[in-house]
Amino acid sequence: MAMKIRLARGGSKKRPFYRIVAADSRMPRDGRFIEKLGTYNPLLPKDSEDRVKMDLDRVKAWLDKGAKPTDRVARMLEAAGVLEKKVRNNPKKGQPGKAAQERAEKRAARAAEAAEAPAEDAAE
Description:
Order of helices and strands: EEEEHEHH
Shape: elongated
Distance between the termini: 81 Å
Structural class: alpha+beta
Low-confidence stretches: none
Strand order of the largest sheet: 4-3-2-1-5
Number of strands: 5
Radius of gyration: 25 Å
Number of helices: 3
CATH architecture of the largest domain: 2-Layer Sandwich
Largest sheet: 5 strands, mixed
Oligomer: single chain
């Protein structure tokens, strides 16, 4: 059985609240889970102690049994010092998309034409 440590969403519409759970990876996100390991409330400020609460002993026990944390939970565990920080590299993250690049090229071409036009008038 492939185990995951992941977030299960609760709370009402536009008021998210998550439980950190150990669950079979084949179960739905908010479905059956084996054990509740903590909570995550994204509405609280980032420096609040109550934003992320975890039973670190139980999390370590599940990791020793082979449970794989999801990316978001892994980041929380890295912040708590349970996992080693993983090097992440996404060089395309800061680049604009295709449409934005095309708009920038058109803008640059128009600016170049506008710069040339006064230069031609001055030459005459």
